[in-house]
Amino acid sequence: QKTALWGGRFATGPSPELVELSRSTHFDWRLAPYDLAGSRAHAFVLQAAGLLSRDDCTALIAGIDALAADVESGAFVAEPGDEDVHTALERGLLERLGPDLGGRLRAGRSRNDQIATLFKMYLRDHGRRIGGLVTDLARAIAEQAETHLGVAMPGRTHLQHAQPVLLSHHLLAHAWPLVRDLERLADWDARVAADSPYGAGALAGSSLGLDPEKVAADLGFTGSTANSIDGTSARDFVAEFAFVTAQIGIDLSRLAEEIIIWNTKEFDFVTLHDGYSTGSSIMPQKKNPDIAELARGKSGRLVGNLTGLLATLKGLPLAYNRDLQEDKEPVFDSIDTLEVLLPAFTGMVATLTFNTERMQELAPQGFALATDIAEWLVREGVPFRDAHELSGACVQLCEQRGIELWDLSDEDFAAISPALTPGVREVLTVEGSLASRDSRGGTALVRVTEQLAELRSRLP
Ligand code: ARG
What we know:
InterPro entries: Arg_succ_lyase_C (IPR029419), Argininosuccinate_lyase (IPR009049), Fumarase/histidase_N (IPR024083), Fumarate_lyase_CS (IPR020557), Fumarate_lyase_fam (IPR000362), Fumarate_lyase_N (IPR022761), L-Aspartase-like (IPR008948). Belongs to the lyase 1 family. Argininosuccinate lyase subfamily. The protein is built from 18 helices and four strands. By secondary structure, it is mainly α. It has three domains: 16-107, Fumarase/aspartase (N-terminal domain) (Fumarase C, Chain B, domain 1), CATH 1.10.275; 112-361, Fumarase/aspartase (Central domain) (Fumarase C, Chain A, domain 2); 370-428, Fumarase/aspartase (C-terminal domain) (Ribonucleotide Reductase Protein R1, domain 1, Orthogonal Bundle). Strands 1-2 form a two-stranded antiparallel sheet. Strand 1 and strand 2 (160-166) form a beta hairpin. Helix 4 (54-73) runs antiparallel to helix 5 (85-102) and helix 7 (167-193) packs antiparallel against helix 10 (236-262). The longest helix has 37 residues, at 111-147. The structure holds arginine (ARG). Arginine (ARG) binds at residues 24, 84, 111-112, 115, 320, 322, 324-325.
C-alpha cells in the first residue's frame, strides 16, 4: 500500500536508504496541529470554489477533527514509511475517510506552501510563549531593582572600578535589552502575520480559484503573500526569529557572567538560593551557579543555530529546494532551549540575595570619586583639561600614601591647587556623587525611580 504523496511516474518505490535520509517526521511532528488547522481552512476554500460539496466539506472537517483528536491523544503517530508530517496526516485522513473523499483535500496546495505557512504559525505561537517568559524575567529584574533602590555599588568599565552607581541602575541595564527583545518579537510577528503563503502552491499559485486571503484569515494571519515564489522559498522569517532567540541568549549570558563573578569568594556580592544552585560530587562545601553557567553555555548553541541556518540559506536558488527542510531543527532547538532556560534563570534572579553592605562599602573605592572632583572643579570654573589633571594628581598622591581620596587633608588639596578648596569634600561621598548624576538616564535615585516606571510601562 502506497503512502507517499508522489509515485505515479516511478517504476519502483524509493530505496530504503532514500527513505531513511528523506524522513523528517521525527522532528516535524510538532507541526501536526498546525497542518490540520491548515487542512480545515483549505477544505473551506475548496468548497467556496465549488470543488467540494457542502456534505463532502462537512465530512472532511469531521475526519480532520477526528484525526486531530487522535494526534493529540497519541493514538495516531507517524509510521516509518511516512516521509513527513504532511504525508502521515494525509494517510491518517485516507484511513478515516477512504480515498474518494480523503483524496480530494490535496487539490490546489503543495507541501511547499503548507510547510512555509505551518512553520510561521508554529513560530508565532512560540514567539508569544518566549515573549511571556522574557517578560517574566524582565519583571523579576525590575522587582529586584525596586527592592534595592538606594543601594550603591561599584560601577565598572574594563572590569575596573569606574564610578559609583545604584545597584538598581545596574540591574535595570540588564532589563532594557530584554525590553528590546520583546519589541523585536512583536515587530517580527506583525511582519510574519501579514504574509500567509497558503495558496501559493508549489511555487506559481493556483488555477483552482482558491482564496488565499480567506485561508490566511482563518489561520490567524492578517494577509497573504504577494508573490507565490517568495512565499514558498523565503526563510528570512526563520533567520530573523533565530536571531532574536540568539540575542535573548546573549542578553542572558551577560547577566549570567556577572552573577557568576558576583558569586565568587572574592566579590561576595550575591548569595544564590539553594533551590537555584548545585553541589559538587566530591567537594562537600561547593555551591555552584550552574543555571548561570548553562545560560552562558547555551547562548553559544543559540548563536550556532542561527549561523547554521544562514549557511543553509546562502546561495539557494529560487524557488523551493529540499535544503529548506534543514531550516527546522536549529530553530526548534533554539525554542526548546529558551523554554527550559528562561524559567530557571528567572527563578535564580528572583531569589538572588545581594550583600548590599559589601557593595556599598566597595562603591567609592579604587578612587571611583575622581571624576566627581574633576566635575566639581568644572562647576568652580576650571577648564576640564586642567580639572582632569588636578584630580589625577590627587589620585597619584593617594596611591603613594596608600589612602583614599577622602583621606586627603585640606592642606593636601591646597598644595595640589588653590582651586581645591575644602568645598570639594561635598562630592567625596557616594551619596553626593550619585545624587549629582541626575541627568535623564543617570544613576541619581530620582532618575532611577523614573526609569523603573518607564521600563515597566514598556513591558506588555
Ligand atoms: N518536509 C519538507 C520541508 O520541511 C516539505 C516537503 C516539501 N517536499 C518536496 N519534495 N517539495 O521543507
